[in-house]
Amino acid sequence: MSEIGELAVKVLVLLQRLTDDKWATADIAKKRCILEIVCLNYTIDGKTLCGIMRKPFDVLAKGLRSTNGGGGGS
Question: What is the chain's mean pLDDT, rounded?
Answer without folding.
Answer: 75
